[in-house]
């Protein structure tokens, strides 16, 4: 639900980018698009659906009778469940046909899966017109290499050594620059790209707005260390491969790489729980909020925790993590910060 909320919030930016693209390419007969970090949940084909519907409305606004054929590449790491996506394509096409403004002339849409890291080349040179990515680019290609132990922490924190913060920042700079270089090779001149990632407003990479959710997991793990359920050395060698940049850092990397012009750079906020109903009393709402956020974070963090701490610790870790999240959300209004950048490939 949170992902769906972000898609909805960024839709005006996507529509603006697609409108400018469609005009700049002089009403193309084909459009090649890519959704990078597509995952395999219920929102995967929602993005494709919104892109196709947006193009169809733009075509009609310009008074063009001929719909472009649209190819959408869905990309994620090889372990992503692409089979589940492919099994949903027939239903997606049927639903899309029912939703289109004009069924008689709606854009034909073709779906393909592309397994691989978006920190490498994925597509033919100068073949892609539009790239979209949501909630993926804050994930680093690897855990940063650190010269100091990030003792008692699993991410950047106010108690992390300065060298740890520096290692995280430099890994982000390296990865995001690599991403931009790869996309620059693959995109046509005047191609557009809209990227949304978890970020922060503060200049401090260890600020609460981006690190608190991981601090709560660290607290759960430290409690288990204190009780002898997890080895302290295991905790001290565990770090989350994520970096949530500020708008300034995103701008700096785009300008430094040099292949793209920034059209829009915006910050938005989403509550930790964006899926709570309005018909609940306060106590029920807090329970649902805590449960939803804990469920979301478990889906994100479980593979990392499992591979490092083993299966025996998993249920207890996330039981405690859920309680910590619920307790935190009952005390204060907690938000996620999104940074969205829309860029154009230079000619």
Mind explaining what this structure looks like?
The protein is α/β, with parallel strands linked by helices. 48% of the residues lie in helices and 18% in strands. The protein is built from ten helices and seven strands. Strands 3-2-1-4-5-7-6 form a seven-stranded mixed sheet, with helices on both faces. β1, α2 and β2 form a beta-alpha-beta unit. α1 packs parallel to α2, α2 packs parallel to α4 and α9 runs antiparallel to α10. The longest helix is centred in the C-terminal third of the chain and has 28 residues. The protein starts with a helix and ends with a strand. About 2% of the residues have low confidence.
SS content category: alpha/beta
Q: Give the overall form.
A: globular
Q: First CA to last CA: what distance?
A: 38 Å
- What is the chain-wise order of helices and strands? HEHEHHEEHEHHHEHHE
The average pLDDT score comes to: 90
Summarize the biggest pleated sheet. Answer: 7 strands, mixed
Rg of Cα set:
21 Å
Number of helices: 10
Beta-strand portion reads: 15-25%
Sequence stretches where pLDDT stays below 50 over 5 or more residues: 276-283
Q: Could you give the count of β-strands?
A: 7
Order of adjacent strands in the largest pleated sheet? 3-2-1-4-5-7-6
Please estimate the helix content: 40-55%
